[in-house]
Design a protein that fits this description.
Largest sheet: 8 strands, mixed
Strand order of the largest sheet: 3-2-1-10-4-7-8-9
Shape: globular
Number of strands: 10
Helix content: under 10%
Length: 177
């Protein structure tokens, strides 16, 4: 890690339940999110949101409708409607787009039982937009599907994402964009 935040990155501000789009140390935009109801943690099956530096490993959903229903990282062919929420109220809907995260810190969020990628931790669209700004997810970072769809084209694989209660102190080598 080094102290050169000279590139674009995302900060999932868990304390504020916001996704902050950063250019160096300047905030460019912020959007409400929902992180885990069970708080921060890295262990598999913990239902917690993992801390630390991550990168976008894969982008899924380009070109799909904003309300496309995704299961197993594939479009089901259906689009979400309010009736779906009534028919299956307990469903954690994944809508529109997925930014699949991979940990960058061995021993914290990469490898063994705390591997973010193998835990299938995403930034994804949600149908539960009324509770954005509250920690209610099962570990992923939920966003409004339209917001995520508008942000999606500006994010490339390898894009750095920091998840934490406070801004980072150290920065990995960040890509310049």
């Amino acid at each position: 890690m080094k102290n050169d935040p000279s590139a674009h990155w995302l900060w999932v501000d868990v304390a504020g339940q916001q996704l902050r789009v950063m250019a160096a140390l300047d905030e460019q935009a912020q959007y409400p999110v929902s992180t885990a109801l069970k708080g921060l943690g890295e262990l598999r099956d913990s239902a917690c949101t993992p801390r630390g530096w991550h990168q976008v490993r894969a982008k899924i959903g380009a070109g799909l409708p904003n309300n496309a229903i995704l299961r197993g990282r594939r479009w089901t062919g259906a689009c979400f409607s309010p009736r779906d929420a009534t028919d299956i109220p307990q469903q954690d809907w994944i809508l529109g787009r997925i930014l699949w995260l991979s940990g960058m810190e061995p021993g914290l969020n990469r490898g063994a039982l705390q591997d973010t990628f193998r835990r299938y931790i995403y930034i994804h669209g949600t149908a539960d937009t009324a509770r954005l700004g509250q920690a209610v997810s099962a570990g992923c970072i939920r966003m409004h599907p339209e917001t995520l769809c508008s942000l999606f084209p500006a994010i490339a694989p390898g894009h750095p994402v920091f998840i934490g209660l406070q801004p980072p102190v150290d920065f990995p080598p960040l890509r310049r964009s």
